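Whether sequence alone determines local backbone shape is best considered at the level of individual chains. For completeness, the protein is quoted in full, as a sequence line and a line of structure tokens:
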Amino acid sequence: MKGFKDFIMQGNVIDLAVGLVIGSAFTALIGAFVDNLIQPIINVFGGGNVHGLAFLITNESTRVDVGAILSAVIAFLITAAVVYFVFVLPISKARTLDRRRRGLPEEEETPLSEDILLLTEIRDLLSTQRDPSSDPQAGPQD
């Protein structure tokens, strides 16, 4: 039970839970914005067609709603931009400032694993050992 409590109390799990709640509420907000403002504007460009930017292939069950697809793309772009500029960017800056305030070094890139380093060395050695004049498939040199 103590292990589970320690896991739940980690910052990552709490951050994830807060993000999930905020994301759900934000999705509803963006959905209402797109359905009630963006979609009617897109439908205006559909002309006199009551379906907006949709067309029927044969009957009502084969309606292709291009306006709904555009609305979904716009909703995604708005959501991504707001989440980035309102949540991700300020939190990242706050973490950087906190690390500086505490005197901790800047976060470094994750070091490569030993496997990747070894494969990179092998690749580099093979490329330096290859001599184009001794390669039979290279053909004559000009």
The first strand starts at residue 54 and ends at 56. The longest helix spans residues 66-102. The mean pLDDT is 75.
